[in-house]
Amino acid sequence: MELKDSREVAAERPVVWAAILDPEVLKACIPGCTELEGSVEEGYAATVVQKVGPVKATFKGTVTISDMVEPTSLTITGEGKGGAAGFAKGGADVTLTETDGGTRLDYDVEAKVGGKLAQLGSRVIDGFAKKMADQFFTRFQEAVEGPADPDEAPEAEETGGKKGWFKRLVKN
Amino acid sequence: MPKDTGIGASPKRREDVRFLTGDGNYTDDINVHGQAYVHFLRSDVAHGRITSIDTAEAGAMPGVVRVFTGKDFEGVGSIPCGWQVTGRDGKPMQEPAHPVLAQGKVRHVGDPIAAVVADTPAQARDAAEAIMVDIEDLPAVVDMKAAVADGATKVHDDLENNLCYDWGFVEDNRDAVDKAIKDAAHVTTLELVNNRLVANPMEPRVAVGVWEKGTDNYTLYTTSQNPHVIRLLMGAFVLGIPEHKLRVVAPDVGGGFGTKIFHYAEEAFCTFAAKACRRPVKWTASRSEAFMSDAHGRDHVTKIELALDADHNFTAVRTETYANMGAYLSTFAPSVPTWLHGTLMAGNYRTPLIYVNVKAVFTNTVPVDAYRGAGRPEATFQLERVIDKAARELGVDPIELRRKNFITEFPYATPVAVEYDTGDYPATMDKLSEIADLSGFDARRKESEAKGKWRGLGVNCYIEACGIAPSNLVGQLGARAGLYESATVRVNATGGITVMTGSHSHGQGHETSFPQVIAEMIGIDESMVEIVHGDTANTPMGMGTYGSRSIAVGGSAMVRAAEKVVNKAKKIAAHLLEASDSDIELKEGKFSVAGTDKSVAWGDVTLAAYVPHNYPLEDIEPGLEETAFYDPANFTYPSGAYACEVEVDPETGQVTIERFAAADDFGNVINPMIVSGQVHGGIAQGVGQALLENCSYDSEGQLLSASYMDYAMPRAADLPMFTVDHSCQTPCTHNPLGVKGCGEAGAIGSPPSVVNAVIDALHSGGCKIDHIDMPLTPSRVWAAMTGAAAAGHGTAEGRSVGGEV
């Protein structure tokens, strides 16, 4: 399946770029990611626990960042084996464009599943992939610019403006 | 007055008592002391090269006896194919190796890579998860036309390409057919898909392999329609076990529909591993495994052209079909789209010129082989659909167009190499008209319209060749087996009879119907006859049950053996009655001397045979047991006419079957109740194909419909009450019972009538649609109604992703 979407992040492009390359951000953003080790250069070994339709599985595999054109585009690919559940593979081509409010992320996602996941989950896989992508980029947005929840805004102001944890980290 | 015993009576099925009360003895009920369990690690990619398999961790897991990979089977034979088709170029088909466990490459989702034998099924499953396999993905070959294009990825590296064979039939007719179509007053063309199906017998496949150290004898318990065939194929071609050291037992079998004819890798694995592990090894398929390892059915993409003259006589038929073989050649796969399909393209009609072209193609999908009807449903569907379309184009009544072209003289030699011995097609059409109340259709249509529904009527005929098959003929056609059947009739001292037949039952009711024949011949009660089948140790070499052959071929063997028994018993009776054996008559269980009141009971004669105190020992041997092998002189040709009435909901595209009627000619009928049951089951499966069932792959070769969430089986609520009739009887001329066989008819005759009915309903609602590919799900019907059919609809490209509308 394939899907295209975009999202505005209220942060400058270099900040967004740096966030994508930060393994802690990546780990926090990949839904169900319990372990992520490695580096941008070497690639990451990851463990992801996910439920696709009726199939719940622990996927062990790799996450790779490639085709890096700083600070405008890169590709994130992931590939995991879920044992008897089959496998899942996915990738996102991400483009960063400067806008008035910060940075626009355009992403072009492709996802594939095989084995039992395809056999039992094919009807739900499109929705699942969209949900995964949505969650990933929502978490990413939160990591960079802070939670969208307005209740948290005053607290954020007290600590010097609305900022995500990553943004705070890089500003300090 | 219906009979209550013997041929033509309908005693209830004696086997049903144990089936319905949980006392059946299925293969999974067999547990051998000390048995271990195997779990197969199967490929989850459609096509790939195995770069490494690491079994170290799995082998060390609790309870694991041994982990097997393809390496362990390097010295073992390939799973054989039982039929060789010769292509138009005169060359034999391309025949790839089919390993028990993958050697170097995986070729379909479900292809077994490794196998773990462990103390418990759970331990075997857990350990299989710990096997580390690295597979380098290769492009999957799914679409048949793309598979045979230049430069396509090859499923088998050592073959020239993905074309198994390109078969033309009858090649000598080709030019004449082309000319007739060119010169015809009218040509109707239809492109269609015969959708891929999964047989889904209620009982999944099971195998238990046993090896005895003391004797070096092997036993395989397996879910098979033909244990002798498995013994020969597996013993001689795969494992190198001589038949006298190998026993194959198929106990009660819970449905087969063809998919349990074939020899499967799992059977060979369990037998091999039993010796390798020094323990019995058992495998029980899960339903998920069944979807990706049982041979699938159908999967043809066809273009058919029907030529007619100005008077609407059929002048020629030309077809071009792509037939999916899947990744390997299953046991009888090559014969299905060729000899079981091309030879039926004349149907019930006097078409003088026919040419059938079939391209069989390898793809990265589960192997495809015979499924209820096997080739004949595909032939019937395209022919009966194109005739319906022709009638619509010509503005004539589709029934009258059929009647006009019926074959009416028998025997009739078709232009496609078979000779129909008997039939009466107008009679079955008349009967259909009566039982389906065709004259009341217009009134029923009005009632439906008043409810806001569109009603349609679909009628079609069918003919099939069954009672498979004359051995010398099929030998010429490429069969690597004889297709006779065998029976031993063993009369016991006290008069009871045990019939050991090479036929097998996977739901057909042989234990009830076969005794009816013996009871009729001898005049004893059916309860005195017991049927033994399914065990190579105590039945003569037989070819099993498929192709509606059991009563026509197996029953004939039983009759021949029983005749020998009766002839010998008459000699014994003649001795006891001090008369000439030519004067002895057997009637109602008594031997009597013609024209006298002298008689001796059946039981007295059988006792004398085994206690030969007063016995002509100088002339005949003691005992009363005879064996016969029967090889049919021709196929049998059941035929019939079917009618389906549907309602289509114009708001949703939902199709409901309102009425279904079947008028069949099966020749003589042994047990009318069982025959009706066979027709009911066949229609249910045919309706399943027409409306619900679809085995679907994505373009990566992932099997998408592999559970009952996505593969829709027909349920009772999807079907109306059926009206079936088999009173039109033109007995077969060449077998002793005059029977034709009835097991497949319902599945052959019903899909076109359903589709014809839906198309008729859509036309009545103003949607001038020529064709919709099966299954006619609401989304497909709706898409067709609104002109939204997917691109490539009805073509190989369009069907490659069967899940689309």
Q: What is this entry, summarized?
A:
Chain A has 172 residues and is α+β, with helices and mostly antiparallel strands.
Explain this structure.
Chain B: One of its GO terms (molecular function) is oxidoreductase activity. Chain B: It holds the Pfam family MoCoBD_2. Chain B: Keywords: Molybdenum, Oxidoreductase. Chain B: This is Xanthine dehydrogenase, molybdenum binding subunit apoprotein. Chain B: It comes from Tranquillimonas rosea. The complex is a heterodimer of chains A (172) and B (805). Chain A is of the alpha+beta class and 172 residues long. Chain A has a single domain, classed as START domain (Alpha-D-Glucose-1,6-Bisphosphate, Chain A, domain 4, 2-Layer Sandwich). Chain A is 34% helix and 42% strand. Chain A is built from five helices and seven strands. A seven-stranded antiparallel sheet of chain A has the order 1-7-6-5-4-3-2, covered by helices on one side. In chain A, helix 2 crosses helix 3 and helix 3 packs across helix 5. About 5% of the residues of chain A have low confidence. With 805 residues, chain B is α+β, with helices and mostly antiparallel strands. Chain B folds into three domains: 200 residues, Aldehyde Oxidoreductase, domain 3 (Alpha-Beta Complex), CATH 3.90.1170.50; 339 residues, 2-Layer Sandwich (Aldehyde Oxidoreductase, domain 4), CATH 3.30.365; 147 residues, 2-Layer Sandwich (Aldehyde Oxidoreductase, domain 4). Helix content of chain B is 28%, strand content 22%. Chain B is built from 20 helices and 30 strands. In chain B, strands 3-5-1-13-10-11-12 form a seven-stranded mixed sheet, with helices on both faces. Chain B has a five-stranded mixed sheet with strand order 7-17-16-15-8, sandwiched between helices. In chain B, strand 29, helix 17 and strand 30 form a beta-alpha-beta unit. In chain B, helix 9 runs parallel beside helix 18 and helix 14 packs parallel to helix 15. Chain B is globular, with a radius of gyration of 27 Å. The C terminus of chain B is likely disordered.
